[in-house]
Amino acid sequence: MKNIEKYIKEIESIKSGNIDALIVNDAKSLKVYTENTADKIYRILIEKMNEGAVTVDADGTIIYCNRSFAEMINLPLEKVIGEIFKKFIDDSLKKRFEDLLGQRNENSIKGEIYLYSTNGPAIPVLMSINAFLLDGNFVVNIILTDLTVQKKNEEELKLRAIESEEKNMKLALLARDLQAQQAESKRVSNEVLDLNKHLEKRVYERTGELENLNRELKDLSLSKDKFLSVISHDLRNPLTALLISSDTLSQDTKSPDFDKVRPFIDLINRTSHNILKQLDETVEWAQMQLEKAIFNPEKIHLFLKVNKILDLLQVVAAQKNVILENKIPPDILVNADILMLRSVFQNLITNSIKYSLENGLVTITAVQVDNMIEIAITDTGIGMTEAVTNQLFSNIHSTSIPGTNNEKGTGLGLILVKDFVRQNGGTIRAESEPGKGTRIYFTLPVAY
Q1: Distance (Å, rounded) from C-alpha 298 to C-alpha 185?
Q2: I need a surface site. Which of 89, 189, 304, 442 has the fewest CB within 10 A?
Q3: Closest CA to 443 of 354, 366, 358
Q4: CA–CA gap between residue 321 and residue 353 (Å, rounded)
């Protein structure tokens, strides 16, 4: 009983700031390790650590902590001693921590949790717990590593992965169309060669037929030129590499050491962006002019496909705390080209996020109407006037309006969406009012 009373007095002394020490209970009495003992070098090491360090007794009471831990929970050091440790951690490891104290066995626990302070946001930490017997007394040592910067870096990597996925998807579509157009161009070239040979045989026989054949040759040459113009797409791959390199170079040369070359780096970066934008617009326009695009429809489970797309867009939505809801019935199947369908959903949902305000909501629903599935993407964003809504899918030269966080766009995404929906046998329309959000409807054939 005397030892317990002495232990309580020691804790009160630490909380009042009268002593600054690590208390360890042995079989006979309380031992106090101060900077005057042989443990000074280890105490200094723990005090200087960036990680939080905590020691608790068998009841879960904090009997020691360093300043890093006190700063994590936003409390003065003297007020932490004597507190119950589990009040500062979330529920994910609280039960295991209580079991560890209850069993009083030498053991260890490691996991990621959120650490709560009395006044401030929760912070993600990696908590490592080691329990052991010291001179017959059960002691628990805890090390907590702040993961705030690591979590932020992970979010940035996810965002870049989404952007890369979108670019790769568009490149895959363009590459597929380019391959088909190259094959068609080769076919037309072969036809032209055959016609030339045929003309050589008949040039001396019938002048009238020669004139007709010359007209046919001219038409075929125009078709050939049309297909050959698509070869300009090949410029996009090296230009994209140049753009990525210039972006990286621009980010890596912001220090004063690069002041002399900085204007040239900025010029290269701006010019690369402008050229890529112009090339994108040219490619998109050329694609819209094709009489027939490569189309590979298949049976698609709509709910599962939309779920995958929403997973990729969660990081983008999180920038504005926008909630993405998939309310499509789980039994709906559609017949569509999977690459085109992914492009349609990503463009429309990204637009909904782009024009949503903080804490907005984007909902995707679907219903069967006869032999078609009508899909609706609804947001609670800033909306549009009737004039803008009526022209939304009709002008290939339309410019993109910046989003609520000043997000940029090319202005051609919705034109591409309309073309892909049309090629899949569907229609698309929009309903919107300023300040009341927007709803985009489009249809796809049912798959049986």
Answers
A1: 27
A2: 304
A3: 366
A4: 10
> What is the C-alpha end-to-end distance of the chain, expressed in Å?
80
pLDDT tens per residue across span 194-243: 777 776 666 566 666 666 666 665 654 444 444 434 444 446 556 766 77
Specify whether the CB–CB gap between 302 and 332 falls below 8 A: yes
Place of tokens 């009983």: 1
Q: Give the pair of three-digit tokens for residue 55.
A: 């020691």
Longest dimension (CA), the chain: 128
Q: How far apart are CA 350 and CA 403, in angstroms?
A: 10
CA–CA separation, 368 and 374 (whole Å): 6
Please state, in angstroms and rounded to a whole number, the distance separating the CA atoms of residues 423 and 425. Answer: 5
Give the burial string for 178-195 (b: 16+ CB within 10 Å, else e): bebbbebbeebeeebeee
Residue reference for tokens 């009495």:
29
Supply the DSSP string of 47-59, one letter for each residue. Answer: HH-SSEEEEE-TT
Tell me how far CA of residue 236 lies from CA of 132, 161, 170, 174, in angstroms.
Answer: 62, 20, 11, 10
Radius of gyration of the chain (CA): 34
User: What CA–CA distance (Å, rounded) separates 277 from 444?
Assistant: 30
Residue 146 CB contacts under 8 Å (≥ 6 apart), including other chains: 50, 51, 52, 72, 123, 124, 125
pLDDT digits (tens, 9 = 90+) for 376-406: 999 999 999 998 888 888 754 455 677 777 6
The number of C-alpha atoms within 13 Å of 70 and in the hemisphere containing its C-beta is 17
What's the CA angle centered on 84, arms 78 and 87, to 5 degrees? 110
By DSSP bridging, strand 297-301 and strand 333-337 are: antiparallel
- Taking residue 252's Cβ as centre, other Cβ atoms within 10 Å add up to 10
> Helix or strand or coil: residue 391?
coil
In b/e form, how buried is each residue of 198-214, taking b as 16+ CB within 10 angstroms?
Answer: eeeeeeeeeeeeeeebe
The string of pLDDT tens digits covering residues 313-329 is: 887 788 899 999 999 99
Q: Facing residues of 363 across strands?
A: 325, 378
CA distance 414 to 351: 9
